[in-house]
Write a structure and sequence with these properties.
Dihydrodipicolinate Reductase, domain 2, globular, Rossmann fold, 7-stranded mixed sheet, alpha/beta, oxidoreductase, 337 residues, Gfo/Idh/MocA family oxidoreductase
Length: 337
């Protein structure tokens, strides 16, 4: 079978992870090149993976061996880089969120459709075994009719400098909680109709200074009658903390834990778990399956499992959240397409 030539543009932490996965773990993919504006980083990564190094994105796009580009740069660069890749005839995988604004997201979705090229957004939790099993059990009717979605998302600390500026990152709702918005749609199986947000910047002065929030509570109403609550925090002193529940009329499905459930010690004082399960231990395999799914969609000419439209829906929810914060009231989620 034909192998898909792939390049990774942007070699921060997540970009390097994708590059290594594409080099060693994804069938029928061939990492051709990596690109970063930091020349030493581009060259050292390329040498390690034995591929070409670029510091100029346009030169990478002119490489005839590249069939698809992974855009893993800061969010504010996504729109321009996705459009340029599509115009160069390349399929595109973009890390979440798809863009900073709804207008930008609509533009890239339409351009991908017009070009007849694949556009996939990186919400890797959909490929996590626990979340997949939760969705299967919900769809099977095991918990009856879903009535409530409950979610806790806490990061261990403040994001990098650029990500603290909502104009560049979309703020807490896109930079951090877009995963949770996508998972809400995935598990509930319905679009979000309305949001009502309360929150503030109470943890980090630098986040407050940029106009972002670091502690929020989001109330959802879904079109199918399910209600939801999402609590998000930029600080969890013991590490990454993610928990999700879907309550049904006949039961509840639980996903995630702030401790590693694989080992526990039971003593007279109670049961003690091993400790925090960090992000990469939990989701590395999901990243592998996500990247494989994108390559398969190219080879089989099928729709990517997480489409540009899915990415747009999340940005629409995030913009409604910001409007709710500004106006202090429930806000309908406006869908553009």
């Amino acid at each position: 079978m034909k192998r898909v030539g792939v390049a990774v543009a942007g070699l921060g932490r997540i970009g390097r992870v994708h590059a290594e996965i594409l080099s060693y773990r994804v069938e029928n993919a061939r990492l051709v090149a990596v690109m970063d504006v930091v020349e030493d980083l581009a060259r050292s990564t390329a040498e390690k993976l034995k591929v070409k190094a670029y510091t100029d994105y346009d030169k990478l796009l002119r490489d005839g061996e590249v069939d698809a580009v992974f855009v893993t740069t800061p969010t504010y660069l996504h729109h321009d880089m996705i459009v340029r890749a599509l115009e160069a005839g390349k399929h595109v995988f973009t890390e979440k969120p798809i863009t900073v604004t709804v207008d930008e997201a609509v533009d890239v979705v339409r351009k991908a459709e017009k070009a007849g090229l694949k556009l996939m957004v990186g919400y890797m939790r959909r490929f996590d075994a626990a979340y997949e099993e939760a969705r299967r059990r919900i769809l099977s009717g095991e918990i009856g009719r879903p009535v409530a979605f409950l979610n806790i998302a806490r990061d261990p600390g403040a994001p990098p400098g650029w990500a603290q500026d909502p104009k560049l990152s979309g703020g807490i709702f896109l930079d951090m909680l877009s995963h949770d918005f996508d998972m809400a749609r995935f598990l509930v199986g319905s679009e979000v109709r309305k949001v009502y947000v309360s929150g503030a910047a109470v943890l980090y002065d630098e986040i407050r200074a940029k106009g972002d929030l670091d502690l929020v509570n989001v109330n959802f109403e879904f079109e199918n009658g399910v209600y939801g609550v999402l609590h998000g925090s930029r600080k969890s002193v013991f590490g990454y903390d993610l928990r999700t529940e879907v309550l049904g009329t006949e039961g509840t499905v639980y996903v995630g834990s702030h401790v590693d459930p694989n080992l526990a010690i039971g003593v007279k004082s109670g049961v003690v778990f091993r400790g925090v399960q960090w992000f990469w231990a939990r989701f590395y395999d999901a990243y592998v399956r996500e990247d494989q799914a994108f390559i398969d969609s190219i080879l089989n000419d099928t729709h990517p499992p997480i489409s540009g439209l899915d990415g747009l829906r999340v940005v629409e929810i995030a913009e409604a959240c910001w409007k709710s914060v500004r106006e202090g009231r429930p806000v309908d989620v406006e869908r553009r397409t």
